[in-house]
Amino acid sequence: MALSKEQIAQRIAKEVKDGYYVNLGIGIPTFVANFVRDDIEVEFQSENGILGMGPFPFEGEEDPDLINAGKQTITALPGASFFDSAMSFSMIRGQHVDLTILGAMEVAQNGNIANWKIPGKMVKGMGGAMDLVASAENIIVAMMHTNRAGESKLLKECSLPLTGVRCVTKIVTDLAVLDIRDNAFYLLERAPGVSVKEIQAATEGDLIISGEIPEMEL
Predict the structure, then answer these.
(1) In the chain, domain spans
(2) In this structure, which of 11, 31, 100, 190 has its CB flanked by the most CB atoms within 10 Å?
């Protein structure tokens, strides 16, 4: 059974280590803060100028002045700090973020990522994603494995305008967990009830399968 968006975030939360500074992109990544273990300390950063984001607020407890880069209302943990976007991007460009979690429209088997523009649709610009993918050494993509037409989003080459080149290290989709290395997708885990054949059929890029592929644990 394919994972929900929240379950994708739940699996990615297992990649977050104690002491990490983590940037959460717009979309699925924003749910990750809800699933991080209670026994570790993690600082979540948003490029609009927050360090110390917590989980989403409960209904009725939202503060309209407290938002992330996607304009969603958030909570702030004790000790959180607020600063201007210049300081925020100095932190990003200075490589002070240990892990970046982004959404994507397409990822190529060489680690290229396209996540900002669909030709013919009006957008305001690439935004902070450009700085994040250029500066981060550890990038995990959270995405659906196929688009609404059932076409693979894990490709030999991206067809959409690129955000970054050769930068993605790991992908968690609704079907699988995959590493990118040696110009290929390496299948690490499969979603509960999803077969390797289903993942193969949904992956256009080169998919490397070695031994028995375990089901992911949430």
Answers:
(1) 5-208
(2) 100
DSSP bridge pairs for 187: 178
Give how far Cα 183 sits from Cα of 64, 158, 177, Å: 44, 13, 16
The CA–CA distances, whole Å, from 170 to 61, 110, 166 equal 34, 11, 12
Catalytic residues: 47
**Cβ neighbours for 210, distance < 8 A, ≥ 6 positions apart:** 186
> Whole-model pTM?
0.92
Residues 76-135: pLDDT tens digits?
Answer: 999 999 999 899 999 999 999 999 999 999 999 999 999 887 766 666 667 778 888 888
- The CATH number of 5-208 is 3.40.1080.10
Q: CA–CA separation, 53 vs 159, rounded Å?
A: 34
Q: Cα separations (Å) of 16 from 85, 100, 117, 189?
A: 24, 10, 28, 17
Distance of alpha carbon 13 from alpha carbon 89, whole angstroms:
23
Query: Is residue 168 within 8 Å of 110, Cβ to Cβ?
Result: no
